[in-house]
What we know:
There is one protein chain. The longest helix has 25 residues, at 2-26. The N and C termini lie far apart (44 Å). The relative contact order is 0.17. The chain has one domain (38-126): Immunoglobulin-like. By secondary structure, the protein is α+β, with helices and mostly antiparallel strands. Strands 4, 5, 6, 8 and 9 form a 5-stranded mixed beta sheet that branches. A 4-stranded antiparallel beta sheet has the order 1-2-3-7. It is built from 1 helix and 9 strands. A hairpin with a 2-residue loop joins strand 5 and strand 6.
Amino acid sequence: MKKIVMIGLVLLLLLVGLKHFNHYQNTTKVDASSPKESQMVVRHFVKQDTLFIECFIPSVTFTDKSSHVKRAKIRVYVDGQMKGDYNTAAFVLKGMQRGVHLVKLDVLDRKSSHQLGMHRQFYITVS
């Protein structure tokens, strides 16, 4: 009976650990004690040669409808090369080469292209 309980406990811990690992592999968060202006959450996943990115940034907007929040764009770099500016919170990069790549996201003011102090970097693997 003790063996069954121990095996069940080990399996439960393993499942919880794998779920925790997978969540943090695809999500990048800012420390909750940091100022609201720098809060940025990025989710991403790779499917074949396509990278899907989704950003949550409460202090900026990507639409022209809101006048009381700073309008922003996201500049994307892959392995140090600029891939483009995106005026949406979610976007797709197609045609990624196989291998491991460093992706960097910079949040910029849409009009002046000045940095707003929010950056994220993460590695992806395209297989």
